[in-house]
Amino acid sequence: MSRKFSADQFHLSTELGKGSFGVVYLADDLITHKQVAIKQLDLEQTDDLLEVQKEILMLSTCIHDNITRYYGCFIKGHKLWIIMEFLSLGSCADLLTAGPFSESIISYICGNVLNALDYLHDSGKIHRDIKAANILIGSNGEIKLADFGVATQLSNILSKRLTFAGTPYWMAPEVIKHEEYSFKADIWSLGITAIELAYGRPPLTEFKSYEVIFEIPKGPSPSLDSGFSEEFRDFVNCCLKMDISDRYTAKQLLLHPFIKIGKKIKKIDILNLLDKKLKWDLEIGKKAKPKYVPTELRSENSNKNKSKSSSNKGDLLNNSNDIHSTIKWDLTLDQNDDGGDTLKNITESVKQLNMNPKMNIVPQSPLNYDEKLKDPIQEQKELDMKKEMIVILNQTFSKVSSKYNLTTSQYDQLVDFENQLIDSFFMNKDDRYRDIFSKFYKIFIKRVMRTENEDLKKLVLPKYYLSEEAELKQFRELTGKKADNKQILREEWTPEPSNRHKNY
Amino acid sequence: MAFLFKRNPKTPGDLVKILNEQVTKLDQSNGSEKKKAQDEATRHLITLKSILNGDDSIFGESAITSQPEILNQLSQEIYSCDILSVLITNLADIEFDSRKIVVLLFNSLLKRKSGNRSPTVDYLVNNPKIITLLMRGPELPEVSLNYGIMLREALKHEVIAKIVIYDPLFWKYFTYVNTDIFEISTDSFATLKDSLTIHEKLVGAFFSNDAIIDRFITSINHLMTAGNYVTKRESTKLLADLIMIKANYKMMSSYVNNVENLKIIMLLLGDRSKNIQIEGFNVFKVFVANPRKEKSVIDILTKNRIRLLEFLETFNKERNDDLFIAEKEYIIQQIHLLPKIVMNEKSGEIKESNLNGKIINEFD
Description:
A: globular, B: 2% strand, elongated, disordered C terminus, protein serine/threonine kinase activity (chain A), EC 2.7.11.1 (chain A), Prot_kinase_dom (chain A), non-specific serine/threonine protein kinase (chain A)
């Protein structure tokens, strides 16, 4: 901690992630020549600085092999830069896009996370945000818990206004009901994360995030289906006890038979995950993340990306030499010449303090990389849709292939069909064809739904739709009512930040 | 067979004695011997932690069953062998995670009550060097955060807060807050803030002395002008909080009767940061609301009448808090009531203040 950090010691490159808390960048530490992750927190968005300070205090008093190391932080303008250890394989959530993990890998990950949780809980700390996206993997296969504190705390502060900021799928029922916030909440979230790693997504994702907060406390606890081993299913059940006193502690879970399975996992098994992911990215044509582009170029694009750029506001402050003077007061005193001078001295010294050369590390939105013609927002939307569809197809495929013993030819035909679908919806070079295909597909489904031939319906449509057509009607009425609720909720939750922005 | 020579404590008192020996060794030894003492200290501290956490199986058969009794025995030995100052002095030599156990021990002792008294507070008052030791924390980067947590726990007791604010070291905190290391800066600020806000009566008496008031105003003004974003925002908030406390009346009136202070606050009011503007407003309003304003203060306010009114008109408009709206209304009204004529005493000229919205500035 004795090192004094400053912005000129770092060379920012790729954007690693974005959240309610700000942006995370990959950076070169020009002093140690190591790669680090830098999180930029916009303090102007935070009502209570003491909360941030408490979290930094917590970060700096945690050193554990399974927790990403905190190196230090410093203030730049109104942003707090937090320097953290960088783990090159990314998060479990990233790797999960290429398909669910095997049980032994899940066991290995859970064991490592439990070590970290045991350490935290033992020193009276709660992580509050366990999920696959916060479990990072290093190049030696090491597993580390990240985003401990700051991000969560910030979203908690935000949540005073938004009620529930972020995604509540991993939240324990008692947290949602505002009953109690104990370290057992982390154990629940770990159980949900285990399910996420096994299926590719947490339970209840069929609900919107504002609906899921009603679903989780209702119970029963989510569980794994019978396709998984007895040990794994029991492990998840021990994490997901509705009653906090029944729920296991990290220490107890470390002794669970399921954790033993992962002990034989080697570095190569973890690296294989990355391999699979890279191949998958190639297959779906995902582009590499953009490299950092110096600020000089940025001005040309800055308008185009205004909506996405998170740092515009920051530039105002950072680039401005006269940080003080949005308004020019007349502060001269007629009868007291000294007064004017003192003030001049003060402003001079303030100016000098803020005269730092313009910050030329303004990050670049990753979307600049894309073709000029495309609207970056639309592009992102498509990417998200594509990702989601691939996840769904993967889940379907793994379910079918585990249920039925596929021959090579059957396997290949299914893969072909999957590729056809992805191509026609997203990948085909002919834009018009993609549109037409989407229309074609929808009309086809609609016609099947309307057909009088019940056998055809049975063949093509899910059982759910058929047997519950009558109930679907009721369901529709219900959702009609629900829509009112949602409306009310949305009004309450309307965030104010958009107003706050205007004031700079 | 080294383990045969390891002494395992039989009683809480024993444990403190052995720990004391090991920690004292840390100071005096080097190399492998030091490492050994460090490991031993860690081992005993972990035992100590279990005791503090209520695990009473440590002492086996001869165990004293009740938790308060164990703590009682522990603390007797702790006071008599002066282990706290040894632990604190050598904290940097103790292993990273074990330092937190020392903090836990210190804070648990402070919370212990014996009747109406707090024995640890009495002990610290009789051994103020421990407090002085803790106050040096910001100069020791490795342990400054641990020191800060302990010091703030002690500060909750008025008698200790009194030692802290009257210690010459207290003024160093204004310098510590301005250090480049964020953690130390914010930790020092937390200590500074707690010392001045928790015990209102004590601080009110502290601010009855003119020399202290002057020194405080100079120091906080420096933080509000020369600090980084966080320091500026936090120190302005601290000042705004302090001048609203009744017991600090003398300091408040001395602050708002000096036009130099008003200039600083007006600069903050015009800061680009919304949050700093808001904190600045909370000080500014007192200047305006003050029924007996100094002439120089009136002059500056009058000169800027139009701009102030323009600024306040749009200032924080979306904020829906009744108290704030009422305050803003009042301040606007008070500014309207300011005299429209500025008298220049030096030259005897009478100037009409900016009826067209232009500000008369002789130095332009």
